[in-house]
Amino acid sequence: MAACGNSGEKKDSGMMNTGDAAQKVYVAPGEYDEFYAFMSGGFSGQISVYGLPSGRLLKVVPVFSQDAEKGYGYNEETKPMLNTSYGFVPWDDAHHPELSQTDGVPDGRWIFINGNNTPRIARVDLTTFETTEIIEIPNSGGNHSSPFITENSEYVVAGTRFSVPFPQKDVPIDSYKENFKGALTYIKADEPGNMDVSFQILVPGYDYDLAHSGKGKSHGWTFFTTYNTEESHTLKEVNASQNDKDFIAAVNWKKAEEYLKQGKGKKMPANYMHNYYDEETHTATSTEKKEVTVLIPSECPGLIYYLPTPKSPHGVDVDPTGEYIVGNGKLSADLTVHSFDKMLTAIENEEFEGEVDGIPILKLDAVSAGTVSSGGLGPLHTEFDGKGNAYTTFFISSEVVKWKLGTWEVLDRAPCYYSVGHLMIPGGDSKSPWGKYLVALNKITKDRYLPTGPEMNHSAQLYDISGDKMELLLDFPTIGEPHYAQAIPADIVMKNSKKIYPIEENKHPHAVKNEKDVRVERDGNVVRVYITSIRSHFNPDNIEGIKVGDKVYFHLTNLEQDWDTPHGLSIMGARNAELLVMPGQTETLVWEPQKPGVYPFYCTDFCSALHQEMQGYIRVSPKGANVPIKWSLDGEE
Ligand code: K7E
Ligand code: CUA
What we know:
The chain is mainly β. The protein folds into two domains: 38-494, Methylamine Dehydrogenase, Chain H, CATH 2.130.10; 511-632, Immunoglobulin-like. Helix content is 7%, strand content 44%. It contains seven helices and 46 strands. The strands form ten sheets. Strands 6, 7, 8, 9, 10, 11, 12, 13, 14, 18 and 19 form an eleven-stranded mixed beta sheet that branches. The chain has a six-stranded mixed beta sheet with strand order 42-41-44-45-39-46, with no helix packed on it. Strands 36, 37, 38, 40 and 43 form a five-stranded mixed beta sheet that branches. Strand 15 and strand 16 (221-227) form a beta hairpin. The protein starts with 17 loop residues before the first helix and ends in a 5-residue tail after the last strand. Bound molecules: sulfanyl-(tricuprio-$l^{4}-sulfanyl)copper (K7E) and dinuclear copper ion. Sulfanyl-(tricuprio-$l^{4}-sulfanyl)copper binds next to strand 27 and strand 31. It is found in: Cell envelope. This is Sec-dependent nitrous-oxide reductase. Keywords: Copper, Metal-binding, Oxidoreductase. Pfam families: nos_propeller. Its EC number is 1.7.2.4.
């Protein structure tokens, strides 16, 4: 049965049986979804959270971009999260969410995501679904092969997509070959509050595109794809596509740890920020870092090898056993699969065909496990179902191809609407995938939904992969550009979900835990309003004695202790977003009144039947006036 076309024109829905499919994605009102899916926001800079199989949007978590809806990056507490060595950067391009893992299995504690443009990695805490930590990556340009985590969340990794002078300096662009370098960075990730660059490996100035860390037998290694081994710096579409083969870099990070212990790391000056949101003070702080430890491959034998891989490989994906390393050569039709065991043997037997900057290049024959002749075009990414099958996206031929690990035979193929980038199977890059669904993340939406002007939201497509054949179940629109996504069974996350911030644990320096303590204090031209919210009033709600030229800090503590009872605060004319304060939390809005007058402020989140009454007034007098500071609720000070 075909879906209704637009104005009688029939189009291919790609779906076989609408009734069956509908039943499989139907989550009855009041019921929960089976999986949380975390989708990258791409150029929105955020993470969006969807339920699967329904495709319902549950939340947008602000990460790298200011979000006026939640006041993230606008209120005083979260502004430091967006600090970088370039100052306040309120946007980024986020591609790859990675769930934390224990023993190679997603554990639902945190999700990490890369900022591609101004190189950063963020941690989102999955008890609160809030961004709690961001670290900048120095000596990097385009943090794309990131944050692909190691088996016990020891590290998240980051490879330079755009090589740059290392350290940065003013040089002619055409001195690329001599001055530009890549950096492969390992960031310690397993302790909240202590993310830090453990070490960087200085590598040739290629484009390090994607990565995956090994698992099981290959735990201790990370694999990075490269393109532009030509080291061109202009018209890359032509000049970076000359070589028949580029490389997958295999990094032995356990070896790196040994070298660091032996003191082989070189301290180099660097400049990067670490931002941490403390859940007790509800406040983020930024720390500037000044140094990194760098390992040089030529001085550290056995640290890194290159595996020749046709042809400008994009994704590199490691199967659940850790044996197969799949290179998705985006300019080829075939997939090249390397064997981890063969790689170790080839290293032992020194089956090298050359060397670059002290990095041995292994012979392709010596490491190759097989080739998947898919018949597709433009392979990008592969995920696994845990039943011996792999699924690869093909951008140009716009399809997902299912194939068998070990025999390399193609088992099934399904069209995508249209031009699929990443795909995602819950746990599909881990040791034990939950191989029930597959989500294709498509670049072009065109005729799939009602038109919305020149731009259409990108489209996700949900397939049932529990049988032999992939079955398309659902289309749903997404936010920004969800390059990659990850998903996890709901029960792993929801049992830890926080409902409130206990008010007695609130250590915010400007918190007011009791309505008795509300007040307004002046110190020069700085005025601090210690204000509370509880259904359905602010205390105080009448404030006088503010003057033009003052800088007014509204420190709002939400005294509620019930789940899902935030209050908002907005002030007429404030050049700022609202606050949206969770139960037990304190947040600060800064307001610099421009003109004398009396200004209403109000609660923005419909919190009770008397939400419309939750408002107040603040009087602003001219500069130099002597109206005394005064505050009250119902006439009581
Ligand atoms: Cu293939 Cu940025 Cu992971 Cu997009 S990347 S598709
Ligand atoms: Cu408080 Cu609406």
